[in-house]
Amino acid sequence: MQVLAALCFLVLAHLPPLRGEVVGSFQDVPECLDFFYKGWVPEWGAANPNAARLCQRFNNRYHFATLYDTLHRIAVYSAYLFQTSNNDPTRNDWCIEPQLVDRSWNAGMEEEKDLITEHKGVYFGERQALEEDYINSNYDRGHLNPKQHQSGDSRQATFTLTNVVPQTPNLNQKAWNDYETYLQKNLKTCSQAYVLVGAIPSANNWIIKNNVQRVNIPDYIWNAYCCLDNNGQPTHSGGVGKHGSHSSTLLRCLTL
Prior knowledge:
GO molecular function: hydrolase activity; metal ion binding; nucleic acid binding
Shape: globular
Helix content: 10-25%
Structural class: alpha+beta
Pfam family, one: Endonuclease_NS
Number of helices: 6
Order of helices and strands: HEHEEEEEHHEHEHEEEEEE
Keywords: Signal
Radius of gyration: 17 Å
Domain DNA/RNA non-specific endonuclease/pyrophosphatase/phosphodiesterase: 60-256
Oligomer: single chain
InterPro entries: DNA/RNA_non-sp_Endonuclease_sf (IPR044929), Endo_G_ENPP1-like_dom (IPR001604), ENDOD1 (IPR039015), ENPP1-3/EXOG-like_nuc-like (IPR020821), His-Me_finger_sf (IPR044925)
Largest sheet: 8 strands, antiparallel
């Protein structure tokens, strides 16, 4: 059992190095640490000067944690606890992070259209992606923490642009969606499951708007999870990696 626990740490931590509320450290908010296995936060990406740590807050509650790359304007990863979905309806209304614009603003995610009303004339996209970046881009807003792995308010909380990366429709709606569905069935057998989902940015592949590189199109998307039993002991762990643009590439299962 100690060996399996160690493997959970390895799966959730030793992934390839990476080229809500904004916090200096996830450790600053105890509730935010609840989304990491045994409160352990991966060290990779921590030294990136463009990394912002978001305790994703919606309706005055934390729902998951995201390490966000403000230079590439994509999430490095989102960390969450799997919840058996209750299939509550969600609105296709996208939020952004107010504190990535001004640290004195509201600590909870807000819909972009509401911020426009509250802060007329302010540009919100210097350090994060906006809805306009994805419009007519030929890329989907691909969730990292997917709504079907959540319930209640946590489902709606996944609709923030700090929780997505550009994915081709074929990848987002087929291969990756198939894997999320497979994982949903698998994780239902766990008493508790911790999941990390992230992206590795490309060297020079971007959504471009008005001749400006706006949102990086990642080379790879990856997933890692750890399943626990009723005693809080790990039973199995695993993950996959998927090339971000070549949708024909096979998902490679790394189950331990």
